[in-house]
Amino acid sequence: MALRFFPSRQLTFYLARTFLTRSLAVLALLVLVLQTLDLLGTSGQILAHPGNGQAEIWRYVGLRVPQIVARFLPFAVLLGTLITLATLNQNSEVIAMKASGASAHQIIAPLIVASIGVALFSFMFNERIVARSTASLNAWEAVDWGPVPRATGVSSNVWVRSGDDLVHAATAQGRGAATRLNDVIIYDRTGGSLVSIVSGKTGQQVAGGWRLDDVTRFDVASGKLTTRPSVVLPLGVRPDQFTLADVSADDRSLAQLRQDIDYLKAAGRPTGPLEAGMWHKMSGPLSAVLMPLLAGVAAFGLARSGALFVRVVTGMGLGFAYFVADNAALAMGNLGAYPPFLAAWAPFLLFLMIGEAVLIRTEE
Predict the structure, then answer these.
(1) Residue 171 in contact with residue 181, Cβ under 8 Å?
(2) Which residues cross the membrane (predicted)?
(3) φ and ψ of 201, to 5 deg
C-alpha cells in the first residue's frame, strides 16, 4: 500500500463522500446564516422604494446567494475537512488506516482529489452564474432598487481627462472607431484655469481628433457665446476611454475580462488591478485544493492525549492565515505594489509548500 497514491477503493470513496457531505452541510449553514444577516440590513432599503414587495426581496436573495456561495465555499471546505478528519481521528479510524499501511498522504489524497472537483465546480459556477448575478445586482443597486433599464451597451455619465481638459459625455456607445458620444461637454483648461466650455450634441472620432456637431462655445474671458455646425478638436482621448470607463473584474467572466483588458491596454490605460482579478479568477477556486492539506494536521495524533484540539486549531489557523494572505496580496496587487500574477498566485504557492512541509514534518 505504501507505493499506492490512494488507499483501498472502498476507503477512498468513504473518505471523499464523508468530506463532501460535511463540506456541503457547512456551506448550507453558512449561506443560511449569512443571507439572513444580510437581509436584515438590506431589506429595509429594498422595500423603501415605491412598488417593491416580497417579490423583490426574493429576487435579491436569488442574486445574493451565488455571491455568498462563491465567497465562502473555501471556508466551508476548510471547516468540512477539519470536521471530517477530527471525527476520523476521534473514532480511531485514522489509527486503523495507518496500521493497515496507509501513509498520511494516502489518507489525505481522496480529500484532495474531491476538492479538485469542488474547485472545478467553483470556477464554472463563478463564470456562469456569479458574474451575471453580480452584474445584475450592481445595476439594481445603482438605481436604488428601482426598475433597472434594459441593458443596451450604453455607458452613461462618463468623465474622461485629456491633459488639463475634462470631457463629459451623457452617453457613450459602441467600440473602437464606431464609438458615438451624445451631449458632449469639454471644459478647456490651461494651467488649472477654465478658458472655455465647448458643448456638442454628438461626438465622433475622426482624423485629427474628435468631431462635434451642433457646437456651442462659451469663452470665459470675454463672456461671448458662439455656435458652429461642427468642429474638430485635437483631443488626446481614445474611444475606449469612454466605453470602458468602469470595468470591474467581479461582474465579468474570464473571457469578457480578458477582452476588456486588451481594449484598455490599447487605450493606454492601467490594467494592473484587472489583471490581478483575472489571475485570481483561476487561483481563487483552487484554494479549495489547499484546504485538505492545511487542515490535514487535524487527522493525526492521539485523540486521548488532548492534542486533537490543538491540531484542529492549528489547521484552522493555517487555513485562515491563507485567506488573510490572499486578500492582502490581492490588495497590494490592486495598489500596484505586486505584479498581478504574483498577487494572485503567491499565497497559493506559499501555503501549498507550508502545508506540505507541516504534513511531512509531523507525520511522514
Answers:
(1) yes
(2) 68-86, 107-125, 282-301, 308-325, 337-360
(3) -70, -40
Q: Which of 160, 152, 163 is nearest to 203 (CA)?
A: 160
pLDDT digits (tens, 9 = 90+) for 282-318: 999 999 999 999 988 877 765 555 577 888 888 899 9
Neighbours of 213 (CB within 10 A): 14
Residue 179 scores a pLDDT above 90: no
3-state secondary structure 12-68: HHHHHHHHHHHHHHHHHHHHHHHHHHHHHHHHHHHHHCCCCCHHHHHHHHHHHHHHH
pLDDT for 167 beyond 90: no
Cell numbers for 110: 481522496
- The pTM of this model reads 0.78
Q: Which residues contact 215 (CB under 8 A, 6 or more apart)?
A: 198, 199, 200, 227, 228, 229, 230, 231
Cα separation of 249 and 130, whole Å?
A: 11
- Gyration radius (Cα) of the chain, Å: 28
284 closest CA partner among 336, 357, 333: 333
pLDDT at 256: 85
**Helix, strand, coil content of the chain in percent (nearest 5):** 60, 15, 20
Query: Rounded distance, CA 263 to CA 179, Å?
Result: 13
Q: Quick one: which of 148, 336, 176, 9 has its CA closest to 17?
A: 9
- The closest of 279, 281, 270 to 336, measured between CA atoms, is 270
